Amino acid sequence: MYTQYKNRYDTDFFVGLPKNGLVTSVTPDADYPSLASGVTVRDAYTITSNQAYKDKTTTYQINGGLKYEADDFTTLTTELTYNRSKIANRNMIVDTSFNAPTAVYQFDVGGTPNINIQGVDLTDPANFTLRTLFDNHSVAVSKQWAWRADVEHRFDDGFLSALKVGARYTNRKVDSQATASIPLAATNPVLVSTLPTNFWDLSPSGLVKGKAGIGSFLDADGDYLLGNSDTVRSWFGQAAGDRPYEPNLAFADVEKTYAFYGQAAYRFDIGSMPVDGVVGARVVNTVQNLSGNGVESKQNYVDVLPSINIRFGLADNLKLRLAAGKTITRPNFADLNPLVTYVPSGSTGNQGYAGTGSGGNPDLAPIKSDAYDATVEYYISSNTSLTAAAFYRKFDGYIQTYAAPEQYQGQTWLVSRPRGVKGTLKGIELAYQQFFDFLPGALSGLGAQINGTYIEGKNDDPINGGSQRLVNVSKYSYNLVAIYEKYGISARLAYNWRSSFVDTYNAGGIQANSVVADPTGQLDFSASYDLTPAFTITFDATNITDRTYQDRFKGLNASGDYSSTPRDTRTYDRTFEVGARFKF
């Protein structure tokens, strides 16, 4: 099997810098006196930026297997798989700047900062100067062999219904190289009006639905940056061709796993109540060798992972399921990167530090979890069900990213790294599904799905001690789905909502250190129609309601003062996609 994915996209940035200019007035925040609610700046230095990206992923996979029926009750299977993936990313970023005679900043207008730029045309290239280049590319290659073999024996009657044993072996090697993301200043900061006219373009207007106060503005054109890269490099005194990879960012990971498992399916009756389930265990030995530029980490560990699930037939239409087990989840490859990228603070940086850094953690262990689940299923009719579920997870090594001060070359940097933490996750879920087949004609294809979830997630705080909320976990969420299935038509209209959640901890700065997202919801639609049994057309629409995402710096800062101030306001594209699929 061969697959290839290409993605070409741009991001336009308008970077207001209240501290870069002559500050003529400051309005204190009435609720948080240590912060400002607004400033007025003269000769305000401001940046616009285009970030052009071109990504390509190529994957090859070959697999083959054998299946042998030894007799009516015994089956032997084996399979060998090889896959190779290559991910190549390229991006070029060019910053341009202008000076506004007057800029009025209001930091919280309905949860969004607002900027009023006065006395300058933001679409005139004569007002903009070429400033900074970021010229980056990276490549990661993964190769893996995987083999498995299983033996299953089935029983006609008795306590056991099946026994299954098997073995797994994987051998994966990953190599990664990247350039360091460092700013390259223009050797001759010329006006944009002196450059080729197709170098620049205008951004979409009405940034975040006009809430930011910024209309269309000039910045670089992404297609020009990627199509004329050597020309752009020459403006910044750089040699032609891609920049060499940074040796300090090259690393490789070799991971081998040896797994053996056995499981038994069972059945019995308690009076007139049928009971069945599966019990088993898996033993996994993981051997990992991670190496970078002068950095090496080796790990060799064994995990025993038992599991059991049991189903009680309380009635013909009422089931109770219980499950317990241990699981492991290995860290993502990038999280293990033993090296750190350092970026000095510039005009947009945090001046409290020499700069920022980001890297991985080669000492990360797999995420270990003890899982317990209970589910009650009530089948009101053949096409209507009501379920209630409760779950509890106790984990160790759950990966979250934290920023903390670190010393590098005699200076203090704010460095973000993934860390493994302990914690718990528990919650309940209610779900209802029904098809309205009692309705006449075409209406009998209508159906609905409704579910809601309550979750509490906490983990140890490795920076300050105590406990904190799990990132990216909302306490409340629900989904409302309208369904249609009839006459070859399959359609879903789904609204998904989630309550507030923590996005990031330890953001740095004098504001609150935690970034907390506001509640958000999105409406999506998907449909397909079978023109023939072998040919289907599809239509998908996402973000129909054009949602706005907002988050805030919220909580305590390093001095122990509480505040809640805006960080991001984001809008996302509506997408509409028409497709077709066929089968032989």
Question: Describe it for me?
Answer:
By secondary structure, the protein is mostly beta strands. 2% of the residues lie in helices and 67% in strands. It contains two helices and 30 strands. It has helices spanning 222-227, 229-235; strands spanning 2-15, 22-28, 36-69, 74-109, 112-118, 129-154, 160-178, 184-185, 200-202, 218-220, 251-270, 273-292, 296-315, 318-329, 340-344, 355-359, 367-381, 384-408, 411-435, 446-460, 467-469, 476-486, 489-498, 501-504, 515-517, 520-532, 535-542, 548-556, 562-571, 575-582. The chain has a 24-stranded mixed sheet that branches. The protein has a four-stranded antiparallel sheet with strand order 24-25-28-29, with no helix packed on it. A two-stranded antiparallel sheet has the order 9-10. A hairpin with a 2-residue loop joins strand 17 (367-381) and strand 18. 18% of the residues are buried.
Brief digest:
The protein has 584 residues and is mostly beta strands. It has helices at residues 222-227, 229-235; strands at 2-15, 22-28, 36-69, 74-109, 112-118, 129-154, 160-178, 184-185, 200-202, 218-220, 251-270, 273-292, 296-315, 318-329, 340-344, 355-359, 367-381, 384-408, 411-435, 446-460, 467-469, 476-486, 489-498, 501-504, 515-517, 520-532, 535-542, 548-556, 562-571, 575-582.
